[in-house]
């Protein structure tokens, strides 16, 4: 037809639609642009805008839709999708509400799903509290979007319940189709499981989250956006640990088409983590390049300059890091507070506590905050600069006084001070008392007592301070103290002492009879005599036998001790130190005698035995080289043994 009539409108429309159905969006757009005179915006506006939308030319698609003379239902549907991709959620919400209100067809469920997706995006990225749209969560898509909205509100436990319900609905709906396999179901559930793992990560259950993330990656889902988000979350869990795994995961965030699947904040978070990973892996040039690119894209964002400062600190260039932060604070006063806090931290790390205090005191919007006052007072006290610490207290108290004067509009009625104001005055008084500034503390204590005259603790502190400065004034104030009767507490002392856990328990005294009581009264001053215990006698004690008088001596020291009996076959040679000889070795040498000694005494040999009675038998001889400590060791063994009777 086009060969016969190349400008036939119907034929050109059919060709464009066929190309779109085949996914040839670029070729279809080329046909439309070639025949602009015939295919005007009124004729083919939807097809042109749809091709531009599918080619990720979102701005061009928006212009095409807005230039159409007639806004058909198809264009309105596409208009809602384009606004969602442009992250114009308020306009997108209004567009879908209008569509649902003014259309009745079989696509109503899809429109409600898209509407819930817009609400979830508002809750997550813009922190907007969503309105109750009254959507019935009959499908797993609606349950999933509702869970995402709850995550944005911080309701993690409720969101987890919604995700489990979405998982159940997804399995039920997909299992009804016989052509769907278990692998297809798991692939469809991957995005739900990924959101579950994200909740676990937010709850601090990093091990469970990491396990579920890795299971999803093993499934190899086709959604590059899902893979990129999971890989980024794993990198945030790893931080500066397991860097090799993080390097592998960061490749998934660089897949083609990721930038069209994720929101701007998601892409920005991924780029931040890439810069941090480069810093952790000591790729200084890459880190500086990425952070500089991020800063050019978002000049007012804090993270790029903080990453650059952190990299400089890793390179030991602290002064340069402080200068970089100072320049950013001067250029962006709205973010100066957070930057100056970082600068103060760097100064403290360098040991310049006084300079850190000066930086902190330059943050005007935080000067009166109790946390800032506490930090400054602690740091000045560390530097022993008590005057500056008191000045910090004074400035904070004055700020609250001025704030109260502004809110009261010059009213002269007595106005009670705020709890924070009173707390600062009390802390200032305690600090001054601690450092000996009694006169300065008295004015603060009087102010506190004026606010609450029934505060006995403040009155006691005031009297204590005056006692060192003006004793007469202290006496006058002491009259305001309550009497001891009014301050006495109704406490059962006996019950308190006998209670469980008491350190001292009074012993209950038994009732005394009349005789015992008289005895105790008569013998109260007489000391009781201790009865001597009878000594224990041995089991084999015989009263008829006279005890051994040497029973208290060790056995070796007794007169009748003859030594231990030893076996006959044991040779005595070799006892004592090596190479030593005994005193009677010559008599024992058989080679020196004419004949062997008789085995038994002969008749008439008693004189010979008596003549040699001075010779010590071999069994009773001691080795010549034996040390003297051997006897002491044996005595130690016998020490404490009971003597025989």
UniProtKB/TrEMBL annotation:
- Composition bias (Basic and acidic residues) maps to 539-560
Query: Where would you find this protein in the cell?
Result: Cytoplasm; Endoplasmic reticulum
- Regions of biased composition (Low complexity) lie at 591-608
Say if the entry is tagged with keyword Signal. no
Q: Which biological processes are named by the entry's GO terms? A: SRP-dependent cotranslational protein targeting to membrane
Instruction: Give the residue ranges for region: Disordered.
Output: 506-645
Which Gene Ontology terms of cellular component type are present?
endoplasmic reticulum; signal recognition particle, endoplasmic reticulum targeting
Stored InterPro entries:
Signal_recog_part_SRP72_RNA-bd, SRP72, SRP72_TPR-like, TPR-like_helical_dom_sf, TPR_rpt
A GO molecular-function term, please? ribosome binding
Q: Where are the TPR repeats?
A: 190-223
> Does the keyword Repeat feature in the UniProt annotation?
yes
Q: Where is the Signal recognition particle SRP72 subunit RNA-binding domain?
A: 507-563
Residue ranges annotated as compositionally biased, kind Basic residues, are 527-537, 629-645
Q: Which parts of the chain are coiled coil?
A: 58-113
Q: Taking the first listed entry, what is the main subcellular location of this protein, grouped into a coarse class?
A: cytoplasm
Keywords attached to this Swiss-Prot or TrEMBL record, sorted alphabetically, are: Coiled coil, Cytoplasm, Endoplasmic reticulum, Repeat, Ribonucleoprotein, Signal recognition particle, TPR repeat
* SUPFAM superfamilies documented for this protein: TPR-like
Instruction: Return the PANTHER family for the record.
Output: SIGNAL RECOGNITION PARTICLE 72 (PTHR14094), SIGNAL RECOGNITION PARTICLE SUBUNIT SRP72 (PTHR14094:SF9)
Indicate the family of this protein. Belongs to the SRP72 family.
- This protein is called Signal recognition particle subunit SRP72
Organism of provenance: Aptenodytes forsteri (Emperor penguin)
Q: What is the lineage of its organism?
A: Eukaryota, Metazoa, Chordata, Craniata, Vertebrata
């Amino acid at each position: 037809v086009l060969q016969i009539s190349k400008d036939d409108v119907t034929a050109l429309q059919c060709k464009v639609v066929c190309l779109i159905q085949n996914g040839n969006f670029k070729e279809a757009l080329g046909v439309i642009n070639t025949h602009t005179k015939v295919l005007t915006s009124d004729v083919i506006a939807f097809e042109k805008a749809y091709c531009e939308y599918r080619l990720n030319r979102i701005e061009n698609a928006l212009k095409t839709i807005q230039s159409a003379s007639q806004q058909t239902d198809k264009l309105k549907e596409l208009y809602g999708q384009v606004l969602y991709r442009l992250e114009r959620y308020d306009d997108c919400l209004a567009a879908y509400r209008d569509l649902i209100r003014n259309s009745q067809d079989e696509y109503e469920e899809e429109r409600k799903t898209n509407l819930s997706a817009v609400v979830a995006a508002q809750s997550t990225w813009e922190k907007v509290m969503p309105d109750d749209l009254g959507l019935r969560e009959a499908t797993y898509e609606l349950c999933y979007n509702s869970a995402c909205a709850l995550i944005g509100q911080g309701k993690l436990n409720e969101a987890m319940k919604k995700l489990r319900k979405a998982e159940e609905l997804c399995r039920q709906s997909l299992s009804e189709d016989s052509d769907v396999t278990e692998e297809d179901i798991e692939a469809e559930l991957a995005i739900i499981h990924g959101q579950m793992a994200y909740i676990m990560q937010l709850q601090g259950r990093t091990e469970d989250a990491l396990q579920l993330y890795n299971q999803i990656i093993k499934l190899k889902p086709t959604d590059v956006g899902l893979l990129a988000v999971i890989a980024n979350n794993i990198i945030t869990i790893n931080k500066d640990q397991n860097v090799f795994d993080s390097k592998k995961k960061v490749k998934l965030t660089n897949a083609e088409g990721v930038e069209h699947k994720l929101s701007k904040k998601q892409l920005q978070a991924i780029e931040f983590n890439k810069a941090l990973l480069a810093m952790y892996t000591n790729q200084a040039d890459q880190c500086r390049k990425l952070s500089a690119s991020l800063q050019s894209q978002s000049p007012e964002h804090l993270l790029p300059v903080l990453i650059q400062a952190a990299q400089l600190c890793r390179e030991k260039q602290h002064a340069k890091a402080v200068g970089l932060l100072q320049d950013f604070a001067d250029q962006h006063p709205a973010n100066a507070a957070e930057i100056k806090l970082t600068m103060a931290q760097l100064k403290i790390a360098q040991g310049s506590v006084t300079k850190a205090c000066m930086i902190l005191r330059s943050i005007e919007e935080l000067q009166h905050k109790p946390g800032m006052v506490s930090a400054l007072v602690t740091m000045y006290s560390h530097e022993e600069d008590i005057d500056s610490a008191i000045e910090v207290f004074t400035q904070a108290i004055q700020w609250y006084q001025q704030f109260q004067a502004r809110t009261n509009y010059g009213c002269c009625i007595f106005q009670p001070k705020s709890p924070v104001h009173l707390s600062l005055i009390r802390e200032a008084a305690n600090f001054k008392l601690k450092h000996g500034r009694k006169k300065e503390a008295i004015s603060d204590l009087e102010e506190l007592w004026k606010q609450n005259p029934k505060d006995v603790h403040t009155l006691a502190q005031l009297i204590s301070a005056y006692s060192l400065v003006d004793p007469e004034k202290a006496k006058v104030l002491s009259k305001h103290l309550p009497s001891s009767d009014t301050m006495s507490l109704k406490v059962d002392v006996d019950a308190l002492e006998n209670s469980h856990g008491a350190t001292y328990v009074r012993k209950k005294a038994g009732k005394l009879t009349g005789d015992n009581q008289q005895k105790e009264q008569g013998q109260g001053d007489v000391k009781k005599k201790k009865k001597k215990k009878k000594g224990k006698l041995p089991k084999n004690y015989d009263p008829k036998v006279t005890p051994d008088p040497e029973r208290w001596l060790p056995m070796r020291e007794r007169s009748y001790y003859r030594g231990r009996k030893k076996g006959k076959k044991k040779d005595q040679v070799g006892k004592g130190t090596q190479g030593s000889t005994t005193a009677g070795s010559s008599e024992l040498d058989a080679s020196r005698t004419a004949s062997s000694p008789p085995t038994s005494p002969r008749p008439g040999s008693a004189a010979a035995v008596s003549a040699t009675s001075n010779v010590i038998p071999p069994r009773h001889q001691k080795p010549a080289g034996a040390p003297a400590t051997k006897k002491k060791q044996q005595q130690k063994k016998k020490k404490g043994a009971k003597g025989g009777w």
